[in-house]
Specification:
- By secondary structure, the protein is mainly α.
- The chain has 3 helices and no strands.
- Helices cover about 75% and strands about 0% of the residues.
């Protein structure tokens, strides 16, 4: 499950790099691991803190990734 999820993210990142949508200097395997770890961390946090606004966290995370990966 971990390896498959990381690999799926890695392939999507590599596709974005090849298409010119993501900077070429991005380390796809490292970013894939970071994305998976963040998603799991937010899920774990939401289990212990019911006040967490997961939609807001998702928007912030996607926005951060877009700005960080843009060419």
């Amino acid at each position: 499950l971990n390896r498959g999820s990381r690999n799926g993210f890695k392939l999507e990142i590599e596709t974005g790099i090849a298409a010119g949508d993501i900077r070429e200097d991005v380390d796809a395997p490292a970013l894939a691991a970071l994305i998976l770890a963040t998603l799991r961390g937010v899920n774990a946090l939401s289990l212990i803190d019911s006040s967490l606004d997961r939609a807001a966290v998702r928007r912030a995370f996607v926005d951060m990734l877009r700005r960080a990966l843009a060419k």
